[in-house]
Prior knowledge:
Blueprint: H1 2-10, H2 15-26, H3 31-43, H4 45-58, H5 75-101, H6 104-115, H7 125-144, H8 151-159, H9 181-196
Helix pairs in contact: 1-5, 1-9, 2-5, 3-5, 4-5, 6-7
Amino acid sequence: MLWLFFMVWVMLAGISVLLAASAFVLTGFTRRTGQQFLRYVRRSRWLLLVLLLVHAWSIPGAPLWPSLGAVGPSQAGVYSGLLQSWRLVLVLAALAVLMTRLSREDLLAGIYTMLTPLRYLGQAPERIAVRIWLTLRYAESLMQNTQRISFRQRMQQLSALPDTPEEMMQPLLLPIYRYGWLDYACIVSATILGIWVR
């Protein structure tokens, strides 16, 4: 839940806050976290590039290269694109810390605990948790496949129904957690910090 707060908050933060947040996230890095983070960045490289190019050529302002005139990128656009890319990379870094500090079972148990209020709306958090678990397993198996294939083949892989190996047919047992005072304190603190530090 704190990561979700962080993901929203960092998109609104200024440069000084981003510097502080970057230093804070780096304190949680280990060798394994760094490897995971680089994998996320490598997978997101085209998104980062497109984000930079869209901002550079769509936001009006003084041209970055005056010789190109209006057909070139603007200074404000490049600045905005780099800033948005920095924010996205920071979110990926925090996600790498989260994913390397928690096991898959702990992560799903946390998601299930967050979704339990949906029971009052007639939804089944157990079904949602199982769907998330299957999606994570399928995505993980695709990411471990290092075979170089075309974009069309990759899309066919994503659209095909995943295999259901025997291990996926086993019961999924998750520990049940309850909100404690520390959880509420973290949520309230994150909310206040997000409102105060902009």
